[in-house]
Amino acid sequence: MSWSKFSAQEKNELLFRIVNSESSQPVAYATIKFTKSNNGTIANILGDFRIPIHYKKDSETLNISCIGYYSKKVDLSLLTSKPYHIIYLFPKTEALSEVVLSVEKTKELSTRQIVKKAIENIKINYPVDPFSYIAYYRDYQFADEEYINLNEGIVEVFDQGFTSHKISDSLNATSLYSYKLNTDFKQDSLISNSIYNGAKQIKDGKMGSGIGNELTLLNIHNPIRNFNTGSFSFVYIFEKDFIKNHSFKNKGIVYLDDEELYKIAFVAKKEITGFAYNATGYIYIARSDFAIHQFEYNLYSNSPRKLIFTLDVEYNQRENGKMYLNYITFNNNFFITENDALQVENYYYNKENSSLYIEFNRPIDLKSIEKLNNIKISFNDKKLTILKINAINGKTIELKFKREDSDFLNQQNVSNLALFSLKFKNYKDEIGFGMGKSKVEGYQFRELFVQRVFLNSEYNSKLKYIKKGESLRNAPLNNADITDYWLNSPLMKTE
User: Fold this and answer.
1) Model confidence over 33-80: pLDDT tens digits?
2) Closest Cα to residue 399, out of 426, 378, 429, 425?
3) Continuous segment of H or E residues that includes residue 139
């Protein structure tokens, strides 16, 4: 991947990638905090993040941290004028054998007891009083190695605390300050028109796809915040079902700065998943107070072996002794199918009005007929020049040719349809299926990255809030000064 060109927006920002100093692989979901202000951001799964260029002019310093690495400070005023910057983090781990010996000598809790203690301490380690946070939110599809239909915005999430129900409590609400489709990335009407309806299928799984709000779906799948209510298979109710449904193994100690965290691997029991599924993950728990810092969960189907969904949630922001959300990302495999691809059902030439009529099996996307070169017609190997295409009804179009081609056709036996040749390019139906295309498969992502936490922040009745069951595209926007917050869009892939 090279970075030879950037959008106008990117020229007003500093672009970064965080990589492992030993493997040169991206460091996913590192936390970036400014030392002077209370703001920050989170790198994405590729280690990428961006910040407004004014932070360099303000001589800010970045404090970058990530579980399993030494933290690093970056003085922005010392950066060169390069288009993007690579930051190297050095791994910091402790060997498993050393941990096992330590456990044997001190008779610490078993791995299962550590997880049990962590869940019991959720009400102690996480806020039970009202708070809010401002975050960068995005949802998109990823297929054929491309970001598709990238929607993104800035939200403020009001939360009454972990003893309240995240979804049903009306005071647990989200206000929208910005939300738009990023047109720098690929758009696909097939997916965007089908993603909320019955055409979207989640292979081997059910997750309430009838909910038209991707942010609500993201919130439902947070087992730490919803520890005493239902979340997803096979965690179900986290405080009641997670331990009994999974087997655990201590993988050693990792570090967040100087804090020691247990890294515990888990696997869902076969008597719970059956032979059709396999669920694995990791949970990172502070050795000092049993706070859960990170939770990763992956569900697979076994025949064929395929990832169904992935959840990754992290709580690393400590304020007044409580843990606040850092980020949450959830994606699921989807596929969209139709019984038949878009195809021509019938066509004929009418000599009375010198027009060729083409009938399709489904209504056509009218954008398909805007470009005349999207269709090529010939008769008995003679190419015909199209002057105009009209939509007669949803499934039928009319083609007009230049005068000499119309005169030519009027003299031919046009009832012999085998002499016509019809070639289509970029033709789609109303939900986006192209000619001969009957299946699209990929992953639907929903991601939220916290930029600032506000303690003791009460629900604001003057704001407009999103409806939790409806699409964010229909949600009202609030007028507010959000100059301190920004869209952390993925970096553009260039050749």
Assistant:
1) 999 888 999 999 999 999 999 999 899 999 999 999 999 999 999 998
2) 378
3) strand 131-143
Of 453, 449, 445, 444, give the one whose Cα is nearest residue 487.
449
N-term to C-term CA, the chain: 7
Q: Determine how many CB atoms are found less than 10 A away from the CB of residue 101.
A: 11
The b/e string for 114-142 (b: 16+ C-beta within 10 A; e otherwise) is bbbebbebbeebbbeebbbbbbbbbbbbb
> Can you give the three-state secondary structure of 439-468, one letter per residue?
EEEEEEEEEEEEEEEEECCCCCCCCCCCCC
pLDDT in tens, 200-251: 444 444 444 456 799 999 999 999 999 999 989 999 999 999 999 999 999 9
Q: How far is residue 377's CA from residue 373's CA, in Å, rounded to a whole number?
A: 10
Task: Report d(CA 139, CA 169) in Å as an integer.
Answer: 24
CB 264 within 8 A of CB 251: yes
493: pLDDT confidence band, cut at 50, 70 and 90? low
How far is residue 374's CA from residue 370's CA, in Å, rounded to a whole number?
A: 8
Mean pLDDT along residues 88-96: 79
CA 312 from centroid of its chain's CA atoms? 11
Token reading at 337 = 């199918």
Structure tokens at 335: 């596929």
